[in-house]
Amino acid sequence: MKNKTKKILLAIGLTSTMSFSSLAEEVQSSISGNITIANDYIWRGLAQHVDSASNHEKEVTISGGLDYDFNNGFALGVWGSNVSFKDTNGKDTSIEMDLYGSYAMNYKQVAYEVGYISYQYPNATAASFEEVYVSASYKGFGLTQYKGIDGANDNLELSYNLELSGIDTTLVYGDYKDSNKYHSITLAKSMGELDYVIAWNKSKPTDDDSENHVVFSIGKSF
User: Fold this and answer.
1) Interior/surface letters 9-33, b for 16+ CB within 10 angstroms, e for the rest
2) pLDDT in tens, 78-112
3) What is the pLDDT of residues 181-202, one digit of tens each?
4) Which of the ends of the chain has fewer CB neighbours closer than 10 A, N or C?
5) What are phi and psi of 65, to 5 degrees?
6) Using the 8-state DSSP alphabet, how is residue 20 labeled?
7) Sheet strands (E) in 56-166
8) What is the pTM for the complete model shown?
9) Nearest CA to 64 among 40, 38, 94?
10) Largest CA distance in the chain
11) b (16+ CB within 10 A) / e for 192-209
12) Distance from C-alpha of 169 to C-alpha of 185, rounded to nearest angstrom
């Protein structure tokens, strides 16, 4: 997912005076989507493709989502990806499906956002969980606190974003409670109609040695 809030279509309120053409324009301006192919899937420093021996196995990952922005601060979305790991009952996962909603606002130069995310694994439901979050950003600096609804999965994330020679650069440090600490450097650039991203991730799980992952992806937004 996952690092930015996503939105999906629910409904659009219309007045009787709106024409069909204006309706089409409104839908196109509010609905967006994305599809990405990557050489791996790392989330909060944790590999999402793990074999039966709990070893990380790189696997081509295809993901995509649909977003809907109500243009009043509220947004909803859905995002999905292939995954491969076992839940606490030993069942194999194959699909992750995330549903989320948020409300964002600005006060002077500070942007705020609150939201809800549901992580669902249809064929391994013991891995599913929900969380809420609150975030604030100011001049490239960001702070987000995630809180698991079940009392687990708490995560604190700090970030800094800047543009260097036309390349969107993001630095992240996170503390995923009772799981691991992680940090990453992400470089992104759009060329033509495609988005190219390369990210270096380093994590220190609480029960294992440090891990380093490099992920390269090509995506398209529409």
Assistant:
1) beeeeeeeeeeeeeeeeeeeebbbb
2) 999 999 999 989 999 999 999 999 999 999 999 99
3) 999 999 999 999 999 999 999 9
4) C
5) -155, 165
6) H
7) 61-69, 74-82, 95-107, 110-120, 129-138, 141-148, 155-164
8) 0.84
9) 38
10) 63
11) eeebebebebebebeeee
12) 7
Looking up tokens 């993001």 gives 170
Give the residue from 7, 6, 1, 87 showing the smallest Cα distance to 44.
Answer: 1
Amino acid at 107: Y
Closest CA to 125 of 148, 96, 84, 150: 96
33 close to 2: Cβ distance less than 8 angstroms: no
Q: For residues 96 and 73, what is the distance between their CA atoms, to the nearest angstrom?
A: 26
Cα separation, 100 vs 130, in Å, equals 10
Contact 168/188 with Cβ under 8 angstroms?
Answer: yes
Q: In whole angstroms, give the CA distance from residue 143 to residue 120.
A: 25
H/E element, 168: strand 167-176
Closest CA to 178 of 54, 46, 42: 46
Residues in the chain: 222
